[in-house]
UniProtKB/TrEMBL annotation, chain A:
Residues 22-298 form the CRISPR type III-associated protein domain. It holds the Pfam family RAMPs. GO terms for biological process: defense response to virus. This is CRISPR-associated RAMP protein, Cmr4 family. Keywords: Antiviral defense.
From TrEMBL, chain B:
GO terms for cellular component: cytoplasm. The lineage of its organism: Bacteria, Pseudomonadati, Acidobacteriota, Terriglobia, Terriglobales. Its main location: cytoplasm. Keywords: Antiviral defense, Cytoplasm. Gene3D superfamilies: AF1862-like domain. GO terms for biological process: defense response to virus. This is CRISPR type III-B/RAMP module-associated protein Cmr5. It comes from Chloracidobacterium thermophilum (strain B).
Length: 308, 133
């Protein structure tokens, strides 16, 4: 969180930060265009981890659009998000956003319907991001490293079969401990809805990095889509394609950094910029493709430094 | 780095040979329509992604449309992940009896291999009309 800046300090050095939590409520398709693989329309993934990602540029565009609708296309909007393209050279916006990173991924479970899985590599990165944003001092303790085929979750989790076993997709895991510090921290920040907070606490599972990566690669939804011949109601030649969706309940987070306004006549501080975004961002945003077939509806929470 | 073909090159090379064998009805492909081979290979990746590798291969075996496809997959996986000790040599059996790690590795490898196999099958005209089977 930004310290109060000394009166004579350069206002541009001022910074405020927040975390934007994203909770998919319907299938999510942050697309990457066409591909040569099995799936014609895959979701975007980080090159080195193969984990799904929502680019910062996508996210900023969506938040900008939401704020424009809420507060109007005026000087304040330009101060926060940057001017329109024709005037792009005049000044930069005051808000920057990182790519939204995967936080927890829902996986089918034999008991308890589904589990949110995460892993040490994700959590270490979250802690690094908290530091990057100066939100570090109010973090959570990293849970112990679970081994391969091992899992950490709440001792009374409804996911457990026979007290210590978890069956996720077709894989079995042995519970070796809990990650309650993490789940307590996460539940109250990542989601607003009380029932979901409770569910997150009992259904969050920390797995080995490799086990987690296998799930985010292979436990997405692959959906066949077709175009029908209008007259015959049969599939048009060549109109069959496969699209990949991240399942509903997937959790992401992005780091939001604000500096003071650089726009002439708009002297918002970094804190004001963040407050503007917080005030005008609605609780739900539509992210990624296929808006008109009900995809990409996400609950979002902007948790600023004081709360994080 | 040693100057040998990359993993992807080796997959491609094996897949190319497999498609040629299927086209000429050689080896395990003798009693199989070449276009059935291509058709089943095309449907396999999505079946794996939706139902899992074991289920998808069991379905393929039960239907018996393309026995050569199972044989080629088994051959390639056994090259990549040579069976240890008294581990079975048949891919489906290996998956059923193996541990979770065998399944995870085989899933990744089969999917990567099928990309090449399908590309070459298409290039060689081993495609079926879109119809249910």
């Amino acid at each position: 969180m930004s310290e109060p800046v000394a009166a004579n300090a350069n206002a541009a050095l001022q910074r405020a930060a927040a975390l934007l939590f994203i909770h998919a409520q319907t299938g999510l398709h942050p697309g990457s265009g066409t591909a040569l693989g099995t799936v014609d329309l895959p979701v975007q993934r980080e090159r080195h981890t193969q984990w799904p990602v929502i680019p910062g540029s996508t996210l900023k565009g969506i938040v900008r659009d939401a704020c424009r609708r809420a507060a109007g296309n005026n000087g304040d909007l330009f101060a926060v998000f940057g001017p329109e393209t024709a005037e792009a050279g005049k000044h930069a916006g005051a808000l920057s956003m990182t790519d939204a990173r995967i936080l927890a991924f829902p996986v089918r479970s034999l008991r308890g319907v589904f589990a949110w899985v995460t892993c040490p590599a994700v959590l270490e990165r979250l802690q690094r991001d908290l530091k990057l944003a100066d939100l570090g001092n109010a973090g959570f303790r990293l849970p112990a490293e679970p081994g391969k085929d091992k899992a950490l979750c709440h001792a009374d989790s409804p996911l457990l079969v026979g007290g210590k076993q978890l069956v996720l997709e077709e894989f079995e895991f042995e519970r070796t401990g809990d990650a309650n510090d993490l789940t307590d921290w996460l539940a109250v920040r990542a989601v607003a809805d009380e029932a979901t907070q409770k569910r997150l606490q009992s259904h969050l599972v920390v797995l080995h990095d490799d086990d987690f990566t296998h799930f985010v690669r292979h436990a997405t939804e692959v959906v066949a889509r077709v175009g029908l011949d209008y007259e015959r109601k049969t599939v048009k030649e060549g109109a069959l394609f496969y699209e990949e969706f991240l399942p509903a309940e997937t959790l992401f987070y992005a780091v939001v950094l604000a500096s003071a306004s650089r726009r002439n006549g708009h002297s918002q501080s970094a804190g004001d910029v963040l407050a503007y975004v917080q005030c005008h961002t609605p609780p739900y945003l539509q992210i990624g493709g296929d808006e008109t077939i009900g995809k990409g509806l996400c609950a979002v929470r902007l948790v600023n430094g004081k709360e994080a | 780095m040693a100057s040998q073909p990359t993993l992807d090159q080796r997959r491609a090379s094996h897949a190319w040979e497999a498609v040629q064998r299927a086209k000429q009805k050689q080896g395990p492909h003798q009693k199989q329509e070449p276009k059935k081979f291509g058709g089943q290979a095309k449907k396999l990746p999505v079946r794996i992604m939706t139902a899992g590798l074991g289920q998808a291969l069991a379905f393929l075996k039960a239907k018996g449309y393309a026995p050569g496809l199972l044989a080629e997959l088994t051959d390639w996986i056994n090259q990549r992940m040579p069976p240890q000790g008294n581990e079975p040599k048949d891919l489906l059996e290996r998956i059923v009896k193996g541990n979770a790690d065998v399944l995870r590795r085989a899933t990744d490898e089969v999917l990567a291999y099928l990309l090449w196999l399908n590309r070459f099958a298409e290039a060689e005209g081993l495609t079926e009309e879109t119809e249910a089977s």
